[in-house]
Amino acid sequence: MFKLTRRSFIKTTAATALVGHIPSLQAQNLSTGETGAMVKANEFIRLNWLEGKTPQVLTGATVGVPWPRGKISKSQQFQLINQDGKDLPTQSWPLAYWPDGTLKWTAHAVAAGVSLGSELQVKPVAKTAPPSENIVSVKQSKDGYLIDTGVIVCDVAAHGAQFIRSVQRDGKDIMRNGHLVVITDDQPDGESGTTRQQNYISNISQVSLEQHGPVRAVLKVEGMHKDAKRAWLPFVVRLYFYAGADTIRVMHSFVYDGDEQRDFLRGIGLRFDVAMRDALHDRHVRFAGENAGLWAEGVRNMTGLRRDPGPAVRNAQLAGLACPPLSQFPDVIQRLIHLVPAWGDYTLSQQSADGFKIRKRTKSGYGWVEAAWGHRSPGTGYIGSISGGVAFGLRDFWQRHPTQLDIRQAHTDTAQVTVWMWSPDAPAMDLRFYHDGMGMETHDQEREGLEITYEDYEKGFGSPMGVARSSEITLWICAATPSREKLVQFADAIQTPSQLVAKPSHFLATGVFGGLWSLPDRSHPVKAALEDQLDFRFNFYKEQVEQRHWYGFWDYGDIRHTYDLDRHEWRYDVGGFAWDNSELSPDLWLWYSFLRTGRADIFRFAEAMVRHTSEVDTHHLGQFAGLGSRHNVQHWGCSAKQLRISAAVYRRFYYYLTADERIGDIMHSLIDADKKLESTDPARKLKPREDISNIKAHAGFGTDWGSLAGNWLTEWERSGDVRYRDKILTGMRDIAGMPHGFFNGNSFAYDADTSHLINVFGNRASASHLNAVFGAVEIFAELVTLTDEPRFVQAWLQYCELFNAGKQEQINALGMPHGAGNALRNGHSRLTAYVAWKNKNPALAQRAWREFFGNRGVPGPLLKTTRVQGVNSLNPFDEVPWISTNDTAQWGLAAIQNLALIGEYIPSMADLKKMDATDND
């Protein structure tokens, strides 16, 4: 027992009354707002900018909005309105439906170049008039598509290498020949001899028009990277166009399907050409730096010369404006200008999170000159002239290092730009497994490895086959060189895209995501302390990302699993203690934290995690397609390929809030993941307690079937396809029909052909501490409200009540203890809270709070960090010795859900003192 925990907590808590009483969850689940009134079809839903300020540059935006059950017809139309009450050009579409067919989530797109303000409103309306201005049009031909935003016209090819044939503005070609490039090495370095490189370019297999306006158009380009002999590295590139926009948003995704022993990626990039029409001194190069900095030069610089061209020339070039005609230059400049070097090639290379370098040269074959250095570049550049050019940027540029921006041949009629998502200046990407197996050949030996390093190793299972990564690029098609201030605004917009969101009170009122949260409430001293703890834990991890440099192409978005106090280091190199890979649901902790607070920093943290865990931690093709990899030194290294990691339950928040098509694709790809249970049995290394020779596959109820239920629920509500509802209902009824329901063994036999769960444990009762902590609590809360299966509800409530119950209570109900002990007792307190709320049982509510506070519930004096620096650390950082990601995720979910479910029964200070005294007896 941690005897200092509650006593110290009591000493350090202070009452802070900031908000009024929050209605009970029972009221919230009736789809009531803060005032208790039903959300009506003709009411406005307020939308705010996530970062709290009106964007300086708006290239168009899309937002997901939830609606209460049974209130909004699937045929309902919507209108976006700005803060001045003016109707905006609007495009709306459904994202999800309630079981009765009414709308659950809708998406709404707003055009660029319209007056928005700090707040928008979305309103259900009887009829929406098609916009007469600010529209995007799409024309299709056998060769491709022509997209006109009203500002730019983009010609997209249906086949070949260049998917962007050209982009025009004001009738002039500005950009041409957009395609993908890949460079590979046949070895990671030159130690074994000469390294041979190979170049591949994109080859289109299919182009699909996913949306065709009037406000937003989306093209999906699919293909492979190809040379004369080989096609590999499948890619998907989505091109986004908004009415009134001069930008193209590019979402690039690729899947690794090579041989990690010989296919070492050296560069992955998007390449295109830019027309250069003007004199060399009227051509401009820009790279954004940090803190609103900008590196800005001319292709042929007119400053610093021995003979001064005059302030009119110098000032114009520096501002990116047209210089006076050459005939107005001083005679000596006119006569000798051809001897001023023209610099054709430029590179900004970000090789680490802490340093970038800019270099330039006159042309290929001549030496590079190092031009500038900096810390963290936002990854935005520009090449063009007074007649137009292209600004380009890669989101998370320094966070996803090594990255690079190249400009080549700017001194010719056509400049070439490559936005490198993996920099060719960096060492080749080495995806090989990090050890040789250390003699582990059998499952018995592998279990011994698990015993010492917590690594679930199996030969051949640490392959990167099928892992993926997506990158977001923005292209600005400019009529002229933008001002320095505008380029800085572009850089900010690329790194922090404008995102609209509804208010937390609206999310809560609609009952989406199970409604297992409440708005922050500091009116009670203990509640205030819990809110402090929630803030502390998130802020700590946010700072750890920076202090520990959890950055890099494959790493950014993940966090570490367990801390090593002796080394003052997270256990980055110790088997299963290294990268977290969604273990015990930190994703859910973050998303529920955002829903209840609306904090932008939590959203952005969770967004990076979604991008990472949905792609890097998940296999998208090959033997393990549809499965994720358990925590490991390498994200794909663990042999536990499991549904609990790839699960849609972790991704659907982001999808519904943003309507992101890539995440939608990933979730859809999981609908048949149950078929992988047979070929990759999660129980294959366990010694069976019964004859399982005729069992095709096992499924744990939470780690496997709960994940499947989340996948199917998401597909059902997105598509309305009742086949996936029926799969869920089949499993719900099978579990309800077991002798002990959810306690009928740690896993069931599973038949993927029929979706049936089969009892293989007879009348024995048992439980696993992991079954409820990978989204099962949250998904089952939704299933209880969305389906009518009272026996399933009864079985689930039994599990919730008995998991943390005393042994005698377990024996009385099950005939035997379930055997899970007190594992994750704090996190499981939310199960007790759920049944207490559901059955209106104050005694169980009080028991739930005892469980929550009884195991390091609120470590008061430890709401502090210790600064480690000097010889004990490479860099200064803050340390919390007791913290772990498992504990944080489960503590956070329990705190959030207990406050919502049984907040009215929260112990007083006096109660906590009594609990503390009892512990000391």
Explain this structure to me?
This is Tat pathway signal sequence domain protein. InterPro entries: PcRGLX/YetA-like, PcRGLX/YetA_2nd, PcRGLX/YetA_3rd, PcRGLX_1st, TAT_signal. Pfam families: PcRGLX_1st, PcRGLX_2nd, PcRGLX_3rd. Residues 1-27 form the signal peptide. Helices cover 28% and strands 25% of the residues. It is of the alpha+beta class. It folds into 5 domains: 1-22 and 517-556 and 836-921, no CATH class; 39-125, Immunoglobulin-like (Sandwich); 135-300 and 341-498, Beta-galactosidase, Chain A, domain 5 (Distorted Sandwich), CATH 2.70.98.30; 566-670, no CATH class; 671-823, no CATH class. The protein has a 20-stranded antiparallel β-sheet that branches. Strands 4-3-7-1-28 form a 5-stranded antiparallel β-sheet. Strands 2-6-5 form a 3-stranded antiparallel β-sheet. Helix 16 (722-736) crosses helix 18. The longest helix has 23 residues, at 525-547. It starts with a helix and ends with a helix.
